[in-house]
Amino acid sequence: MTERPLITDAPNTWCPGCGNFALEYAFRDVFQELQKEGISLEKFVLVTGIGCHAKIADYLDVNSFYAIHGRAIPVATGIKIARPDLHVICCVGDGDAYAEGLDHLIFGAKRNIDITVVVHNNRVYGLTTGQYTPTSPLGFKGRSTPAGTLEYPLNPLELMLTSGATYIGRGYTKNLKLLRPLLKDAILHKGFSFLDVLQICATYYDVHSMYDSLVYEVKEQPGESYEEVIKRLREWDYNNKAPIGLGTYYRKEAPTFNDRITVMKVSDREREEIIRRVLEEHL
Amino acid sequence: MNDFSVLIGGKAGEGLNKAGQILAHLMGRLGYRVYMYYDYPSLIRGGHNFSVIRGSEQKIAGHRAGMDIVLALNQDTVDFHRDKILPGGLLIYDAYYAKGEGMAIPLKQIIEQNKAPSITANSGIIGAFCKAVGIEWGILEEVLHRDIPPKVLEINLAVARGGFDAAQEHQKLHDLGRSALPFITGNEAIGLGLIQGGLTTWVAYPMTPSSSLLHFLAEMSDKVGLKVIHPENEIAVMNMALGFAAAGERVGVGTSGGGFCLMSEGLSLAGMSETPIVIMMGQRTGPSTGLPTYTGQTEYHFLRHAGQGEFSRFIVAPGDANEAFYWSTVALNLAWKFQIPAFILTDKTLSEGGYSFTIDEIRKVPVEDSPRWDGTLPYRRYAFTESGVSPLTEYGREKAVVKVNGYYHDPRGITTEDPGIVAPMQEKLLRKLQGLDQELVSYDTVNQSGSSGAVVALVCWGSNKGVCQEVAEHLGLRMVQPVVLWPFPVDSLRRALEGTSRVILVENNATGQLAAMMRQYGFAVHEQIHKYDGRPFTVEELENRVKGVLP
Asked: Considering only alpha carbons, which residue of chain A is nearest residue B202?
């Protein structure tokens, strides 16, 4: 086993204090840990959207597909259906996954495709310099909404439970001790794993003192019952000042999209024979 | 020359596409080469549907305006089509639901006597047709055995027999004494060509006229080891397909104009990330929803320019089922060989039209692939090469770090804004087109038929091939059909037009998209014939239009 540093020499352009650093190094640690446990590094594929989060595709020295805004999940889905042996991880942003590509997030969960979706949720558009996202609180004053937003945020965890995700959790970039096992757990879960990871945007939405005062680690075991879990997911609605639970809320074993696909291999010669047969049927 | 046309019409939901196929198979049994045009409005029940089935001694790819027989299941068919009946022709109609001059068949009675469902009326009228043109009962029985599902075969046979017995012989359809050819639609030909080319995955969202290709490949998937995925929308289709390709699958997508609009951002990603992909684009009448079930040739320029930025692509527009089969295989090969998007540009006429398919004419094309990584470390997904094509490997290869990227990137696939890398990367993307152009020298990118020495040329593309060929033959003109539309086959087209002094363009659009492209490359275009009402040209109509512009 070769020890690779797993961090490329690409110059890092995240702002000092950006939450993305924590995710980058947590991923590195988890990949190294999983490598020690027998998963070779080439089995990981990182698929990203567009946004500050997505630069992680350049910074981590593993397979990657640096896709377009909102579309990481369909790309990842294609990779996973083609190659069930790969661990496909989507690093996506909150604007990326909850606005531009919301349809794909819902359908990924609905299919229970065996990929891991990690949302770098800083609740603001950073790379486009400070507009509100679907998880910004009501009244958020961004550059496109100087008088404050007129709409409530989404609760993505609730949405994911309703859509059919089989692993749902929340992390916080300032709690690395919890973030690493959460990432590892989500990657190893068979089925659609969803992690909303709260991080601050050092430049446009630095609310770390608010998060620090509200977060707590969820003590209950992850539930399987929809009714019980949904109640707990509604504790914090991304708008109120309620306690913010961190950890795994929901975990369920269920057949994945790949489990339902069986495709046999057909040789070139067999294919030609089948074409000939089809043509004969059309006489 | 033996040339025979029959039209069958009725309401949607009466199985008129199937009835058309049965008539096509009957003519095939008598040795005719067949073409079928299927005309239907965008609805599920009601409206007016009809199929025109034409048989000829020669292989054909177009229909005529004049009908030898019209089979009318309702009054609309009589009213809309009675004027098309040729002298000596015949109207055969349902005695209860229609009135007319010709042969009335008591279909309602026959159906009631057999306690049959009303959809069997088309079997009844086909029975009457067979009697009227002297096709033996045994032939009809055999065709119905093959074409009708076993569960409803008996009842259809009974109604067909009733129709057969109720009719009288009118004119004998001459038996050409040749064996039948397979009769398939353009979309089936594309599907088979893709399978021949090693397709492993098809991703599509339904949209006429590409849906029947999705259905055909889904039906075939078990037999040929194909994954067929229908995702949430065309945006997902394109991006998912790129994921498949990056993971080593030979993948294609199918759509029409509106769906392709949604794919164009992903198309640009394919261009930048050099991810191979085949796109079947079936044109229909636009703009917007336009006429969803009718034809058009309006997306040539759209495909040529779709997607932001400048990158290499391949566009082929086959003219009939045989070309559709052959070029679909080639499109897959070229997409992978050059790591570019390859378009199969069709229209409703080709995709849903039926054609006699000549198996012996199938040129066997071996499966071709990208140059593959030789294992030298580190792997560079976008290594600079003379051809612009970098050796490919897929995710999961030991020791390789495969970085696919939609930003400008360095050879490793890591994002860069360095002008010293950006400019050569842009050149790399475009250099592949030069290689493709060279590669295409060994292909017949421009077809030529009709009178080769003629100084007047009819120039067309796609599904107009069939009608143009016939009109050129009748009028002693040269027919020239560029099949490859991008890279534009300048040299082959110049050779095909050598010695002509008058060039007439025929297109199913209002502006002349091929004409504009030809002019851009310095070709003279003297006349343009357009049709943009959603309907394909009939042979007669085009002939009259061409005569109108001849000196």
From this structure: A78
